[in-house]
Design goal:
Elements: E1 9-13, E2 16-22, H1 31-34, E3 40-44, H2 48-60, E4 67-72, H3 79-84, E5 94-96, H4 97-103, E6 106-109, H5 113-126, E7 132-135, H6 139-147, E8 157-162, H7 166-175, E9 186-192, H8 198-209, E10 213-216, H9 219-231, H10 236-251, H11 256-278, H12 281-285, H13 289-315, H14 318-332, H15 347-352, H16 363-382, H17 387-408, H18 411-416, H19 420-441, H20 451-458, H21 462-470
Parallel strand pairs: 3-4, 3-6, 4-5, 6-7, 7-8, 9-10
Antiparallel strand pairs: 1-2, 2-10, 8-9
Family: Belongs to the ketol-acid reductoisomerase family.
Protein name: Acetohydroxy-acid isomeroreductase
Pfam family, one: KARI_N
Length: about 475
């Protein structure tokens, strides 16, 4: 990653170094130069990412000659909300999708994955010559490769991919107005660079979003790690884990509230906070290490097997096709909600107890959760992903964005209110993880720990990579 505008840093990671950019509001004056000829940015879509990114970019570019506009369908129910946040037809900052595409120098495509797969051809046809295509997810590339298509020639293609929800991207940006360094990390990818300025544009976009730490990847690597991660430790695996453990603890004699605390509250609270602030090994050090080791040993192989299967299905397009196929079906029959299983009825009571009751780290839950997280880390490492991408997609996004959000509400609420792509994947793979925990891991948790496997965890290079990334951690926790 080389920039003609920003001063980058070298990050030491296992096996070498990576180039990263440390963000901050002091860089905002450089944005017009870094965007290299961009005078109008069109943000297409008003979902959580579209809303957050349009507002962040507009605020970061305030006082410059660069305009941020939003493109929506004429009948979009989101138009009223966009107007309420200051994007209006009268000011030229709100318009129909194709009109905004046609007049923008950088077109940021943030509509739903399946919708983009269906509409990309007419969007590409409306692009002005030389316009830069911006993505925040590599899903479209995966879809095009699976269907024999390609991104249009003659256009720079860049991606800026925040490692957190749209709500997190906006809320931490707002916190960054008073707390230096607040923000959500992002990866960038430069897929096509016909004029030689694509990297600077991508970095400017990331800085404008408030990213405290920007690292480089490829568009292919991004969509694979992102889609796998959603189905793995970020959503699918954690949902399957807490459901399995809740039932286990009930059978072991816990009352429902205690079972909820041991299964769910310990993950979203003390485990997430410990990893965020002190790393993975600190979780083991903060609880019964012998039981942690047995739980880790019982879980790792079963979790790794599922992560590898998910990765294969994402890589060959199977998982992406399932998302596209669901679009027409869900227009007729929307997805049912999963928050009706018995354990979620106790969430309000558990959250109400926090003021007077501190939930400890449960060693069984901790061992199983960390084993699943490390299984995903190891799978990504074996598949050739860069360490910055690995720790952000498998650890930092979980403990600094998603798990705090789940802690404020609950895991089921998160699943029922995430993106359609993530929700479909979680509903498909969460039960697979749950079955593996119930049928493979938990029945063998009483066996002696695998000393070689535990030693491998303690010496895993992820600890070095996470420590390096932690030096660039936002200086404030997300407001949820």
């Amino acid at each position: 990653m080389r920039s003609d505008v920003f001063e980058t840093e070298t990050l030491t990671v296992p096996g070498g170094t990576e180039t990263v950019l440390r963000g901050g509001r002091h860089l905002f004056p450089l944005l017009p130069q870094a965007f290299h000829g961009v005078r109008r940015i069109g943000v297409i879509g008003w979902g959580p990412q579209g809303r957050a990114q349009a507002k962040n970019l507009r605020d970061s570019l305030s006082g410059t000659e660069i305009t941020v506009s939003v493109g929506l369908r004429p009948d979009s129910p989101s138009r009223a909300d966009a107007r309420a946040h200051g994007f209006t037809e009268e000011s030229g900052t709100l318009g129909d999708v194709l009109a905004v595409v046609a007049e923008s120098d950088l077109v940021v495509l943030l509509i739903a994955d399946a919708a983009l797969a269906a509409q990309h051809q007419e969007i590409f046809a409306a692009l002005k010559p030389g316009a830069t295509i911006g993505l925040s997810h590599g899903f479209l590339l995966g879809h095009l490769r699976a269907t024999g298509g390609d991104l249009p020639a003659g256009h720079a293609v860049i991606a800026v991919c925040p490692k957190g929800m749209g709500d997190s991207v906006r809320r931490l940006y707002e916190q960054g107005a008073t707390v230096n360094g607040a923000g959500i990390n992002a990866s960038i990818a430069v897929h096509a660079d016909p004029d030689g300025h694509a990297t600077d544009r991508a970095l400017a976009w990331s800085v404008g979003l408030g990213s405290p730490y920007t690292f480089e990847t490829t568009l292919e690597s991004e969509y694979r790690s992102d889609v796998v991660g959603e189905r793995g430790i970020l959503l699918g695996a954690v949902h399957g884990l807490v459901e399995a453990l809740y039932r286990w603890f009930l059978l072991d004699g816990s009352d429902p509230v205690t079972a909820y605390e041991r299964a769910c509250e310990t993950v979203t609270g003390p485990i997430a906070r410990t990893i965020s602030r002190a790393g993975l090994r600190a979780v083991r050090e903060g609880t019964d290490a012998e039981l942690f080791d047995r739980a880790y040993s019982a879980t790792y192989a079963a979790a790794r097997e599922i992560v590898a299967e998910i990765y294969d299905e994402v890589a060959d397009g199977t998982e992406l096709r399932s998302v596209v196929l669901a679009d027409a079906r869900l227009a007729v029959r929307p997805m049912s909600r999963i928050g009706g299983s018995p354990m979620w009825a106790h969430g309000d009571e558990v959250r109400a107890r926090r003021a007077t009751h501190e939930t400890p780290i449960d060693p069984l839950t901790a061992g199983m959760f960390v084993a699943t997280m490390v299984a995903q880390v190891d799978e990504f490492a074996d598949r050739g992903h860069a360490w910055s991408e690995i720790v952000n997609e498998s650890i930092i996004e979980a403990v600094d964005s998603l798990l705090p959000y789940m802690h404020a509400r609950d895991v089921a609420y998160m699943v029922d209110n995430c993106s359609r792509t993530a929700r479909l994947g979680t509903r498909r793979w969460g039960p697979r993880f749950q079955a593996a925990y119930e049928q493979i891991a938990l029945p063998t948790v009483g066996a002696q720990a695998d000393d070689k496997l535990v030693a491998g965890f303690l010496s895993n290079p992820v600890h070095e990579a996470l420590a390096a990334a932690a030096e660039l951690r936002p200086s404030v926790d997300i407001s949820v």
